[in-house]
Specification:
InterPro entries: Class_I_gatase-like, Peptidase_C26, PuuD-like. 27% of the residues lie in helices and 28% in strands. The protein has 235 residues and is α/β, with parallel strands linked by helices. The strands form three sheets. It has a nine-stranded mixed sheet, with helices on both faces. The chain has a two-stranded antiparallel ribbon with strand order 2-3.
Length: 235
């Protein structure tokens, strides 16, 4: 790739963050996300929450999009009542990231959803979520690891063809699949670990956190698709 594709990554917006002598609101993202984009050959651009109506303009300037992990999706987004174990809502982030996903799907932009990002992709297409499950984290604040098995013939299997151990930290997962989505990987306990739609557009959601591991193949798949997509747009 002569010119690295520009990959937008959604971020957190926190009310109170401390660094040096300062404590103030901040847009932030764990460094593993841009680091993984860079390791896979892309150029990372961080996307703080913004007005949803500006999402299409933002996505139109990108070659690829990553919806990062983070807080639980508000259950009202998929027509459910809140389970007591579901975390507090992040309404501005939900609205912004759903608008980003809608824009990427409409424009044909390559898209990767990570953990919360996969769940939002499912919700954006009318799917629902399991609000709590056990066994997919380590200790509090510590990533666990479990095996993920690809579905033969899927987009995910094309980039990671073998069963592999992945870093994971989640207590929610896909329940009913959204429109046009298929399962492309599962855990040993049957938990849906990756989803993707049919068609030519490169779109993939993974339940685990590739930015916390050494395997760059999932992100490299996005970056390579983004390079081809960017070339088509500008060629």
């Amino acid at each position: 790739m002569d010119v690295p594709p520009l990959i937008g990554v959604s971020t957190y917006l926190e009310d109170e963050v401390s660094w040096g002598v300062w404590t103030m609101p901040a847009a932030l993202l764990p460094a593993g996300y841009p680091g993984l984009v860079q390791a896979a050959g892309g150029l990372a651009a961080l996307l703080p929450p913004d007005a949803p109506e500006r999402a299409a303009t933002a996505v139109a300037r990108l070659d690829g999009l990553v919806i990062a992990g983070g807080p639980d999706v508000e259950p009202v987004r998929y027509g459910a009542e809140r389970d007591p174990r579901t975390g507090p809502p992040a309404r501005a982030r939900d609205a912004w990231e759903l608008a980003l996903i809608d824009a990427a799907l409409a424009l044909g932009t390559p898209l990767l959803g990570i953990c919360r990002g996969m769940q939002l992709l499912n919700v954006a297409l009318g799917g629902t979520l399991v609000q709590h499950l056990d066994g997919h984290t380590g200790a509090t604040g510590v990533f666990g690891s479990h095996l993920v098995k690809p579905v033969p013939g899927s987009r995910y299997a094309a980039v990671v063809p073998e069963e592999s151990a992945v870093p994971a930290y989640h207590h929610q997962c896909v329940a009913d699949l959204g429109r046009g989505l298929a399962v492309s990987a599962q855990a040993d306990d049957g938990t849906v670990e990756a989803i993707e739609p049919a068609g030519e557009q490169w779109v993939l959601g993974v339940q685990w956190h590739p930015e916390m591991g050494e395997d760059t193949r999932v992100m490299r798949g996005l970056v390579e698709a983004a390079a081809a997509w960017g070339g088509r747009r500008t060629g």
